[in-house]
Design the sequence.
């Protein structure tokens, strides 16, 4: 009896998890290169005999079908470009990632707020080298730096200008291999990247792809759905059970 | 839900840091040679509730369930763009056009770096900053000099009474860094060298190492773009607001769940 109370309970539980994701998306609305996460819900069937679709009754399926949080995926849509005027700030337009060498191996990022290290190596804010298409660090000599949309870096000094390296851009045919690691980084979990056809915009940083309108809408949605689940729960809790335990014995 | 509360709090605290930086940029928009800072954020660690690619029942999951735990301020980068030039006509106001910093000898003997070129003479005739710190290499102007000229390549000459040829007093030197964004701001328009900035490369202005040239009679203003800072301020305010809404919703959902038990 009362399997509906579990359906309402899992519904409420999954909404609280969805709120966590919505909160994280909104908290990172100011994080360069942040990719929002989108939840999806999926149905599961509970209960022994009704699980076989051949023999399951329509009633059993609808009663024992619970909505749970199935997972979330990265929204890889473009974020807006913010002009900074810093020549080593690079933004990606289109699908793809910059590769960086971290202590745990190669990681991928869309946060292009780079700088030059004390030895001239192109690095992230955490001091991790940015890699070229052959996954090697790039050293930039002093001078004024120009980065072309295809990633070629040229440095001009009083002696003339020369191409000194190229920023690599990488993409993955199967996007689901990417997991967010924090610190604006994504791990590809060992998958091999392919060259991306994203254009590089010098002097800009790509913002997060979460906008306040979408985030707030998600908040309202989650809040209202949680309210419905709570109403459903209280129906079981107060009305049904109360009737069963107090009203029926009286008859 | 407790996660959502902490996540939203991290967003609010990050936006507060952002606003602090914007306030400092705006406060220094009239400071000669000031370089604006910009806060960079990064996402915090993720909790893996379901690992992507794990096998659940018969199918392999194509995507996992990862919940992020908010944001944090990662760095406040110094933006090294050129500031506007302000013509003052003052002999000892010098602006640097291009890369480079003046070297300042601090009272404790260490060297600091500055772009603020509002210089003066002390009672010995030595060229010093507004705070009285000597500019390196020290150049002393004779007390009877009638005029001082500083060329764009840093050569300081003075006209002395009774002499037709101006006397050469010395050459100013500038310093550059591999990563000027890694310099440490210490206030009073001064920056100090750090491990991330690298060692200074000193050269005469307009030298082969990509040094800028000097402009006598001009001051370099701050590079703060007041309009852009106001836009940043609005964005910071709204982001702060939306994070506080999350706290409100989480609180609301929490009280609903508490309300289940009568």
Sequence:
């Amino acid at each position: 009896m009362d399997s509906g109370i579990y359906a309402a309970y899992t519904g409420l539980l999954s909404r609280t998890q969805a709120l966590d994701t919505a909160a994280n998306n909104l908290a990172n609305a100011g994080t360069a290169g942040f990719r929002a996460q989108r939840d999806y819900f999926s149905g599961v069937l509970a209960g022994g005999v009704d699980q076989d679709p051949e023999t399951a009754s329509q009633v059993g399926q609808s009663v024992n079908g619970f909505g749970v949080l199935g997972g979330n995926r990265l929204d890889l849509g473009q974020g807006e470009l913010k002009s900074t005027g810093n020549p080593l700030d690079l933004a990606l337009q289109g699908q793809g990632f910059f590769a960086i060498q971290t202590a745990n191996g190669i990681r991928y990022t869309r946060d292009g707020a780079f700088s030059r290290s004390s030895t001239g190596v192109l690095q992230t804010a955490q001091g991790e080298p940015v890699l070229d298409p052959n996954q090697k660090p790039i050293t930039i000599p002093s001078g004024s730096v120009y980065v072309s949309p295809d990633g070629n870096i040229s440095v001009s000094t009083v002696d003339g200008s020369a191409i000194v390296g190229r920023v690599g851009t990488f993409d993955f045919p199967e996007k689901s291999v990417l997991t967010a690691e924090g610190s604006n980084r994504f791990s590809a979990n060992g998958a091999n990247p392919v060259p991306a056809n994203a254009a590089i915009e010098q002097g800009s940083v790509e913002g997060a792809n979460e906008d306040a309108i979408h985030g707030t809408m998600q908040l309202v949605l989650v809040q209202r759905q949680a309210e419905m689940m709570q109403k459903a729960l209280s129906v079981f809790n107060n009305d049904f059970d109360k009737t069963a335990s107090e009203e029926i014995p009286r008859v | 839900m407790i996660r959502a509360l902490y996540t939203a709090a991290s967003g609010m605290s990050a936006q507060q840091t952002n606003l602090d930086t914007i306030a400092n940029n705006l406060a220094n928009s009239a400071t000669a040679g000031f370089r604006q800072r910009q806060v960079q954020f990064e996402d915090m660690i993720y909790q893996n509730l379901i690992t992507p690619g794990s096998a659940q029942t018969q199918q392999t999951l194509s995507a996992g369930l990862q919940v992020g735990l908010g944001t944090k301020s990662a760095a406040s980068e110094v933006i090294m763009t050129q500031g506007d030039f302000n013509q003052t006509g003052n002999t000892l106001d010098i602006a640097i056009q291009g890369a480079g910093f003046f070297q300042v000898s601090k009272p404790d003997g260490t060297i600091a770096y500055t772009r603020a070129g509002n210089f003066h003479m002390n009672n010995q005739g030595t060229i010093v900053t507004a705070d009285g710190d000597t500019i390196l290499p020290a150049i002393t102007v004779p007390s009877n000099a009638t005029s001082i000229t500083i060329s764009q390549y840093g050569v300081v000459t003075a006209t002395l009474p009774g002499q037709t040829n101006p006397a050469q007093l010395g050459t100013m030197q500038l310093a550059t860094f591999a990563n000027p964004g890694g310099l440490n701001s210490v206030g009073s328009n001064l920056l100090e060298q750090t491990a991330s900035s690298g060692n200074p490369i000193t050269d005469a202005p307009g030298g082969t190492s990509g040094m800028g040239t000097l402009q006598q009679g001009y001051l370099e203003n701050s590079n703060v773009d007041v309009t852009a800072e106001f836009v940043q301020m609005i964005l910071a305010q709204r982001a702060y607001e939306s994070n506080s809404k999350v706290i409100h919703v989480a609180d609301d959902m929490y009280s609903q769940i508490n309300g289940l038990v009568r």
Remarks:
- Residues 22 and 217 of chain A are 10 Å apart (CA to CA).
- Chain A has a mean pLDDT of 85.
- The longest strand of chain A covers residues 65-74.
